[in-house]
Amino acid sequence: MEAVVVKVSGGLVHPPRLEYLTRLRNVLWGLGEAGYSVAVVVGGGGLARSYIDVLRRAGVGEALLDEMGIESSRLNASLISKLLYPRSFPYPLASLREVIEAHMSGLIPVSGGFQPGQSTNAVAAVVAEALGASMLLNCLNGVEGVYSDEPSRPGARLLRRLTYSQLESIIERVSSQEAGSYTLWDKVALGVARRSGLRIAFFDCRDPANIWRALKGEIGSIVEGG
Amino acid sequence: MEAVVVKVSGGLVHPPRLEYLTRLRNVLWGLGEAGYSVAVVVGGGGLARSYIDVLRRAGVGEALLDEMGIESSRLNASLISKLLYPRSFPYPLASLREVIEAHMSGLIPVSGGFQPGQSTNAVAAVVAEALGASMLLNCLNGVEGVYSDEPSRPGARLLRRLTYSQLESIIERVSSQEAGSYTLWDKVALGVARRSGLRIAFFDCRDPANIWRALKGEIGSIVEGG
Amino acid sequence: MEAVVVKVSGGLVHPPRLEYLTRLRNVLWGLGEAGYSVAVVVGGGGLARSYIDVLRRAGVGEALLDEMGIESSRLNASLISKLLYPRSFPYPLASLREVIEAHMSGLIPVSGGFQPGQSTNAVAAVVAEALGASMLLNCLNGVEGVYSDEPSRPGARLLRRLTYSQLESIIERVSSQEAGSYTLWDKVALGVARRSGLRIAFFDCRDPANIWRALKGEIGSIVEGG
Amino acid sequence: MEAVVVKVSGGLVHPPRLEYLTRLRNVLWGLGEAGYSVAVVVGGGGLARSYIDVLRRAGVGEALLDEMGIESSRLNASLISKLLYPRSFPYPLASLREVIEAHMSGLIPVSGGFQPGQSTNAVAAVVAEALGASMLLNCLNGVEGVYSDEPSRPGARLLRRLTYSQLESIIERVSSQEAGSYTLWDKVALGVARRSGLRIAFFDCRDPANIWRALKGEIGSIVEGG
Amino acid sequence: MEAVVVKVSGGLVHPPRLEYLTRLRNVLWGLGEAGYSVAVVVGGGGLARSYIDVLRRAGVGEALLDEMGIESSRLNASLISKLLYPRSFPYPLASLREVIEAHMSGLIPVSGGFQPGQSTNAVAAVVAEALGASMLLNCLNGVEGVYSDEPSRPGARLLRRLTYSQLESIIERVSSQEAGSYTLWDKVALGVARRSGLRIAFFDCRDPANIWRALKGEIGSIVEGG
Amino acid sequence: MEAVVVKVSGGLVHPPRLEYLTRLRNVLWGLGEAGYSVAVVVGGGGLARSYIDVLRRAGVGEALLDEMGIESSRLNASLISKLLYPRSFPYPLASLREVIEAHMSGLIPVSGGFQPGQSTNAVAAVVAEALGASMLLNCLNGVEGVYSDEPSRPGARLLRRLTYSQLESIIERVSSQEAGSYTLWDKVALGVARRSGLRIAFFDCRDPANIWRALKGEIGSIVEGG
Ligand SMILES: Nc1ncnc2c1ncn2[C@@H]1O[C@H](COP(=O)(O)OP(=O)(O)OP(=O)(O)O)[C@@H](O)[C@H]1O
Ligand SMILES: Nc1ncnc2c1ncn2[C@@H]1O[C@H](COP(=O)(O)OP(=O)(O)OP(=O)(O)O)[C@@H](O)[C@H]1O
Ligand SMILES: Nc1ncnc2c1ncn2[C@@H]1O[C@H](COP(=O)(O)OP(=O)(O)OP(=O)(O)O)[C@@H](O)[C@H]1O
Ligand SMILES: Nc1ncnc2c1ncn2[C@@H]1O[C@H](COP(=O)(O)OP(=O)(O)OP(=O)(O)O)[C@@H](O)[C@H]1O
Ligand SMILES: Nc1ncnc2c1ncn2[C@@H]1O[C@H](COP(=O)(O)OP(=O)(O)OP(=O)(O)O)[C@@H](O)[C@H]1O
Ligand SMILES: [Co+2]
Ligand SMILES: [Co+2]
Ligand SMILES: [Co+2]
Ligand SMILES: [Co+2]
Ligand SMILES: [Co+2]
Ligand SMILES: [Co+2]
Ligand SMILES: [Mg+2]
Ligand SMILES: [Mg+2]
């Protein structure tokens, strides 16, 4: 059974919108009906950022801010897990071990972050690797895919196909390692993708039907090879 | 050592505001310095309500909505626990057992909800009972105390002292048992308070210094006896 | 698959009787064979009461007495779980999360209480709600159903059909909230039943075959509506 | 700080008697006040035996019967843990790891059994070994110490001092390995005692003050050496 | 479905050899394909011994040395669990409860030791008992079966069939109860086997195909009866 | 109280050597006596590599290989935790949460890896950040510090002081992201160090007294700033 991992940006889940979420459910359940074995990883998005920002300014250290972000992503994951019940266990999963267990039971594992020092993108990559997924579908919130630079910058243009090295040089230019900062993808996640040759799609998921289009390679960016 | 339990309304925590939270920290740490053994229970507030509402309209059952509310209150509790670190363990506690363990180590236990069918008010009452607290301080978000009716209703007036039975008849008139609905207090919490003779203060906590005033009985409503 | 929840009074389990328990097993396995998805919640009964009474008189507080009651109900649940093995996991389950997990695996979840401040009746109601059960079967120990008053009182008579409100006014007259006290049903459980429209049967279960009769509405009391 | 382990026979705890238990509490707290670091292990006694017997006759296998016995001993341990609160954590501990953790926090660890295939006597021996206890005090229910044979047999006489080998040959003659059977001590426990040179006292504990007497060697049997 | 338990000597796993382990995997998967429900218990072997020896000489007590041995056996079990994935959950299991859970899901449970005072042989016996296994296959590292004495001693000869009592008198002559010491089998394990009438095969497993031969009784020693 | 984190190379622990380990214990206990609050993170070293290599060649995926490495590092951590008992809890800790809990109890937390995709170096950095450590002491096995290139290469020379960026460009040239590969340090760990401004010492620890020398900056390499 072909496995795919869907990473859902936190911004698509919080604040929660009924109409969007029921459409997302239809697509994710639909993937299962079409024979895919699905796993979902959810980001912390704005919810994480608001809690992290206040704590940082109150003097709390970065490792605990990471924990705050993980717990926020887990709340978003909880929402999705209950939405997908009974095809998902209705609670967010907290480790690779639990994700594998749910996958082996034929359910859709839904998780947020796992441990400090690691983004939800890295979690998605590790999950994809563990399940032998053919593709990691990165659902973005209003971004069409990977741009040559921070999308809002003049001159930034969408790249339809990239190698791991090309993605690496982009994220080196753009990224920051503070807990909760805006990033498309990060180096741990990239390292995991590279060592196992994962194919990663990045695409705008404000329309959940785009998940199908991205799976077929019709939209967004594909990263693989090199 | 005299124990007090502080129930913090979710609305005071989410969305998080730096200035408010650092003042709240000062008061809670100050209670400890003044010789009180403090425990904190945090509500889910608007964060819980937004996640619950969407899931309810998506057809998810009430028991899972309760779980969603519990997980939301736990995220708020996590924020407070990290704020109070290192006088609190920097993670939210998930059962009475964990709360007792932290209390026995001389830390400030911080928790949200425990199990479906039970509000964070009931959790606060059970915690107060378990720690033998002299008072349960109910920090409200913009409500001065217990009113004779839903505060927004014409004719509702603030009651400075009430018996358990008077509180009971008020909540019977006003309450609803749907997950995440607005309630001042509920029957489980009331039953626990009554069986152990807990003294409960209700007061507006938009100024955290009010916690001290409520402790001295200067403001808000006090429920006990009868 | 139609789900039913069977709440077994602790008095039916402790002290344990071989002949009774094997007949109970036959009925519970039989429900599964007839196509029902069953969940079982077991009360603490006299075992709980004897441990609670001694601790209360030794000065232990009510919240810990609730915990003692929960642990006792869990021992009774353990007995039933092992009796029902391998159609049940042979250990008592300790949270709604574990109950849902077992149910999703096609097993009969067996649990006792979950958290202080909540009776095993409330647990049964929450479980029924979580599994979308069509009926909550309340197996009593020597009581025919809901009476208009404490059954031993002169003039108390059996009610065959009641609304939630009627049940509420009866339990208001009869109940007490002390840990381990004798009660037919309680307000938390009632609130949960009402918010989800659960149908509850109360009946004497000294003959386990009565479970079938109650399911068909032939004996005992049915509470629903209003 | 000198550590001692007190193994309390299940028969002394179930059915629970107020007067006995408060006296036992006084002695155990008193040991702490006298400078001993105490750990308690509680047996399953008659409670365990009644649940095990019914399940065995219902066809349940020996490993699960052991689990039933462990859970029963844990209920008895729970009673003692709540009785000793706040000098004990008010919950029974389920592994050596938890026992060591409580001991390191300066609390009295209270546990029942740990795992199938191992009696609560073996648990007491392992705990004594882990805490470097100077003595393992075996509180019996109406038996004065180690007899040369099953005490009810004619000719059986009390032995005041024995070697491990003498104890071994007695238990070889008397013991059975069925879950829940009546035994003074067993070979695993003996092996543990021997490898670490633990001193074990056996004495009648129907008067809790005997714990002090046994500690001084005034009553009962002492096993050590050889 | 007929269940068999395979106890794998730690010496067969550590240091790990690719060729051996892939052949072992083929046999274990093959048993499943042939209709057996398999469970695996792995010993600690030389890995355990090296860690235990150093700690003992550094003055660490026997109970913690047992824990060290358990953790070592669990590392060996982890290797086997990952090797057998996805027919095994890819993590070592830490209690009978987890083993039963995996077995009930149709997977091959793989575990090491459980608790101090108990060898991995005893774990294998308890697991065999819990799963109602028809046979416990004891895979030895370079020993043909049970000898009349320590195999290296002159005059020691292989016994093809033995009773429990014969095995008992052999291990009494040979065994030691120190953590990590070399023993063929121990008394707890023997007691468990006897109470449930388990059939135990002992055989040299340097060729994994011997598992099949032992199952048919063609090689090694069989212990049962008496 | 000043906190320091000591990362111990797996190669220093496995195979275990009595004389080395008792000297290491003296130094680590000595740090505590000198007023430092110590935390220890232990690597997997050759033990991890041997188990990983065999599994990789048997076709097991990288995420599970990471888990194998984590479990191996945890076994090494277990050895150290037992060695340091009772100043350490005698079990390896498995998450940042557990590490913080032990640190708050005044004990020396000892852990191995936490989650796949993250090395024990990254764990050490996260722990240092969480405890507000003034220094991360990286105990290497036979390497004097950070070299300008893979130490065995001709022309590689020891660097006494480096910035984060200099370290980054060195590890970019040398590193590989395969589970269990030989690396001095990695990018996640570096990112964590940089965001919190951690000072990292690298030095040869074949003589444990070097820990004191490195703390004073007398030997090895120091990374900080830039
Ligand atoms: N080169 C780039 N191409 C595309 N997006 C980029 C690039 N550089 C930075 N970004 C930023 O990465 C983010 C990707 O959006 P995404 O929906 O994952 O949001 P997010 O806030 O990171 O969500 P989550 O926290 O849930 O992962 C956007 O904020 C986008 O501006
Ligand atoms: N008689 C009454 N007196 C006072 N408040 C009442 C009364 N009846 C209803 N309420 C409502 O109870 C709520 C009490 O406020 P509170 O700050 O606890 O908010 P909350 O949203 O319930 O928070 P949380 O979910 O965190 O507990 C208010 O919404 C108030 O209008
Ligand atoms: N109006 C009433 N109708 C029926 N039973 C009532 C009523 N009022 C009180 N009761 C009491 O409720 C109890 C119901 O019996 P049940 O078998 O549930 O016993 P229990 O001891 O509460 O068991 P458990 O603790 O396991 O729930 C009886 O003791 C009965 O006398
Ligand atoms: N040689 C012996 N000397 C003393 N007691 C013996 C001997 N042989 C058998 N026994 C039995 O061992 C038991 C010791 O009593 P104890 O109070 O430990 O009861 P128990 O039921 O085993 O309790 P628990 O299950 O809690 O350990 C008694 O039943 C006693 O008859
Ligand atoms: N530029 C460099 N400077 C120093 N060491 C380097 C460098 N590049 C690679 N290395 C390698 O990094 C390793 C550092 O040694 P260390 O003692 O941490 O061993 P390890 O096997 O990584 O241990 P563990 O798995 O426990 O972390 C050595 O194998 C060394 O050859
Ligand atoms: Co798969
Ligand atoms: Co207190
Ligand atoms: Co269902
Ligand atoms: Co000690
Ligand atoms: Co089976
Ligand atoms: Co600190
Ligand atoms: Mg409220
Ligand atoms: Mg009842």
UniProtKB/TrEMBL annotation, chains A, B, C, D, E, F:
One GO molecular-function entry: ATP binding
Principal place of residence: cytoplasm
Pathway(s) served: Pyrimidine metabolism; CTP biosynthesis via de novo pathway; UDP from UMP (UMPK route): step 1/1
Compartments reported by the entry: Cytoplasm
EC number per UniProt: 2.7.4.22
Family of the protein in this entry: Belongs to the UMP kinase family.
Name the record gives this protein: Uridylate kinase
Organism, scientific name: Aeropyrum camini SY1 = JCM 12091
Lineage: Archaea, Thermoproteota, Thermoprotei, Desulfurococcales, Desulfurococcaceae
